[in-house]
C-alpha cells in the first residue's frame, strides 16, 4: 500500500488523542445512584466531559480522513464505507455532547423542586442517563465498529499491517459490539466488570495500532502482493 508516512503518523497520534479524550469524557457523578442531587456540585465534571467528547469528534474523523487516500487505492467502496461510518459516529458524539448540559438543567430543577416534583424530575434524569448510555455505548460503538470492520478488512487483504494486528482488531471489534448489544438488551450495564472486560481488548488494540502507525506506518506493497491483487 502506497501511503504518506506523515499521514499514518498523524492518524496514529489522533487515535492517542481520541483515547485520552475518551477517558476524560467519563463523568463519574452521572454513574451515582441519584446523580441529579449531586450534579450541580460537580458541574466541572460535566463541562470537562462535554469538552473532551467534543475533542473526540475531530480526532475520530481526522483519523479516517488521513488514512482514506491510501485505503481508497486498495478498495474504494470499503474505504468510503469506513469514512461514512466515522461520520455517522461523529454525529452520535455530537448528540452525546448536547445531552450533557441537560443534566445540569435537570439538576438545578431537582434542587428547586418540591418533594412531589423532585421525583418526576428524577425520572427524567434516569431517562436522560439511559439515552446517553444508548448513544455513547450502543449507537456510537456499533457505528465505529462497523466502520473499523471495513478498515481491517482492507488492511487484512493488503497486508499493510501484520495480520496478527488486523486479526486482533476483528476479535476486539466483535467483543465490543457484543457488549453493546448486551447493554441494548439490558443484560448488563456500562459500568459492570463484564462490559469493561469485553471492551478491554479493543481498547488495548487501539493503542498498539496507533503506535504501529506512528512508528512503522503501512507496509509498502511488494511486487508479489501487487500481482495477487492485480
Number of helical elements: 7
Average per-residue pLDDT, rounded, comes to 91
Indicate the structural class.
Answer: mainly alpha
Q: What is the global morphology?
A: elongated
Radius of gyration: 20 Å
Q: How many structurally independent domains? A: 1
| Helix share, percent | over 70%
Count of DSSP E strands? 0
CA-CA gap between termini: 13 Å
Biggest sheet details = none
Percent of sequence in beta strands? under 5%
Please mark out the parts with pLDDT under 50 across 5 or more consecutive residues, or reply none. 222-230
List the helices and strands and how they pair.
Blueprint: H1 5-24, H2 43-74, H3 76-112, H4 115-158, H5 163-184, H6 193-215, H7 223-229
Give your account of this protein's structure:
This protein has 230 residues and is mostly helical. The model is unreliable at 222-230 (pLDDT under 50). Helix 1 runs antiparallel to helix 2 and helix 2 (43-74) runs antiparallel to helix 3. It has one domain. The longest helix is centred in the middle third of the chain and has 44 residues, at 115-158. Helices cover 80% and strands 0% of the residues.
Amino acid at each position: 500500500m502506497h501511503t504518506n508516512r506523515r499521514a499514518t503518523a498523524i492518524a496514529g497520534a489522533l487515535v492517542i488523542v481520541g483515547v485520552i479524550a475518551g477517558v476524560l469524557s467519563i463523568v463519574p457523578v452521572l454513574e451515582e445512584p441519584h446523580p441529579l442531587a449531586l450534579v450541580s456540585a460537580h458541574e466541572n465534571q460535566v463541562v470537562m466531559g462535554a469538552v473532551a467528547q467534543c475533542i473526540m469528534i475531530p480526532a475520530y474523523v481526522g483519523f479516517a480522513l488521513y488514512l482514506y487516500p491510501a485505503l481508497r487505492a486498495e478498495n474504494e467502496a470499503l474505504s468510503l464505507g469506513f469514512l461514512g461510518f466515522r461520520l455517522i459516529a461523529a454525529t452520535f458524539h455530537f448528540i452525546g455532547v448536547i445531552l450533557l448540559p441537560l443534566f445540569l438543567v435537570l439538576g438545578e430543577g431537582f434542587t428547586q423542586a418540591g418533594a412531589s416534583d423532585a421525583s418526576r424530575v428524577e425520572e427524567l434524569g434516569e431517562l436522560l442517563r439511559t439515552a446517553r448510555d444508548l448513544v455513547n455505548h450502543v449507537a456510537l460503538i456499533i457505528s465505529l465498529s462497523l466502520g473499523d470492520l471495513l478498515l481491517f478488512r482492507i488492511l487484512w487483504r493488503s497486508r499493510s499491517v501484520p495480520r496478527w494486528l488486523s486479526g486482533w482488531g476483528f476479535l476486539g471489534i466483535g467483543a465490543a459490539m457484543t457488549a453493546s448489544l448486551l447493554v441494548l438488551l439490558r443484560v448488563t450495564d456500562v459500568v459492570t466488570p463484564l462490559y469493561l472486560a469485553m471492551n478491554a481488548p479493543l481498547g488495548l488494540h487501539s493503542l498498539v495500532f496507533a503506535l504501529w502507525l506512528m512508528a512503522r506506518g503501512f507496509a509498502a506493497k511488494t511486487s508479489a502482493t501487487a500481482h495477487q491483487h492485480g
